[in-house]
Amino acid sequence: MRVTRESLLRIAKETAQERAFNDPDIIAVYLTGSLLNVDPMLGGTADIDLVFVQKSENLKPREFVKLTPDFHLDISRRAKSEFKSPRELRSDPWLGYEMYDPQLLYEREKFFDFVQASLRAGFEFEQPPLMLQRCRKMLAHGRGIWFDLNDVEEVTPRVIKKYMKSLFHAVNAVAELSGPPMYDRRLLLEFPARAEAANKHEMTATAFELAGAGNVTPEKLNLWLADWKSAYKLASEKPSVDIRVHPARANYYEKAIKTMLEGQTPLSALWPLFQTWTSCAEVLDGDHFQFWENAARELGFLGEGFQQRVEGLDHFIDDIEVALDEIASANGLETSAGL
Known about the structure:
Layout: H1 5-22, E1 26-32, E2 46-54, E3 63-68, E4 71-79, H2 95-100, E5 103-107, H3 112-120, H4 128-147, H5 157-175, H6 187-197, H7 202-210, H8 218-235, H9 250-261, H10 270-281, H11 286-298, H12 304-330
Parallel strand pairs: 2-4
Antiparallel strand pairs: 1-2, 1-5, 3-4
Helix pairs in contact: 4-5, 4-12, 5-6, 5-10, 5-12, 6-7, 7-12, 8-9, 8-10, 8-11, 10-11
């Protein structure tokens, strides 16, 4: 079966209309994510990111629906109340960009144009004042998670996930200097260009090092793939696993990882591989847990290495804060010291 961006867009529209027809609580559906790009495929796989805006505050959890082994729906839900202050969305590092330029697929009530017009008012969205607000909020989230890493008695998969989440937000605080935030699968793949666009190319090496890339080779990642795949298959069948470790997403990750390993920045595959593997390790034991633990130790996330990683992340967040202050000063804006 030949799948193109156009056929995926058609599926997105049909899904939006069908779901809205059967659920009167849905007032709008819009498309976001990689399908908005000219080439959304990575490793011949892609997801369709749909956001349902609903009247109800009692929302269903995130939903994944398999279309083929290589394509799936990724459905998120937002309450209409989240959009009640459209101008405030301009400083939201996630929802601001999500609403800035999505593709509207369905609308029962007139709300989309009003929200988007308020968001784009005065062409201020991409100017330094609002850009810095979004970056600082993203960085503050990363710093808040980092604080939780300082009194850890035992380094578990859950603790390492917290570390990675903190690093994820720090990296995105840099990325938002030049555009929307990045997501897990392409995080390290896209970060070099985003750091370069923000004139912070030196931060690329630091981000890769904090992710453990300095301790591993592409050949080692290839060797880990079989253990990762077994862990993913087993964990995705357990109800308590992170919702992102879903059977419909197995090829979405595996084929992307293999493609990155064969590309110009093969170590960018480390993030989706180890991030999902760590989520799997939360619900596994025996040999499957041991294989993950060996990899975590080799990457420097266990023993004394973890504290060094936490200290390195502290310095990275500090460096990003300094960079944001430099941009603020250059534009006559308040620095973090005055906030």
